[in-house]
Amino acid sequence: MNVEVATRVFGAPLRVHVLRHVLRNPGASQRDIVTALGSAQRSVAFNTNILIEAGVLISEPSTTDKRSTVFKVDVDRLRELKSALDDFIAT
Whole-model pTM? Predict the structure, then answer.
């Protein structure tokens, strides 16, 4: 059910900060996120994996460094989960 996924996605401050950063900086790498947020690499990796599993973050190979992965936000999926949470709270 989407509400469970939504609470997992939006239920941790670091995940919300990662989403915000990647929305503002499409193509950000994990290293970029770690630096921008001042968080531990392990924490960022753990949370980006949860966001990928939820379908909100999309990872793809970097066009400039084939060894690096970059991220973008699936805005439609993000809206879907926000809507599911809004609907759940309102009922």
Answer: 0.92
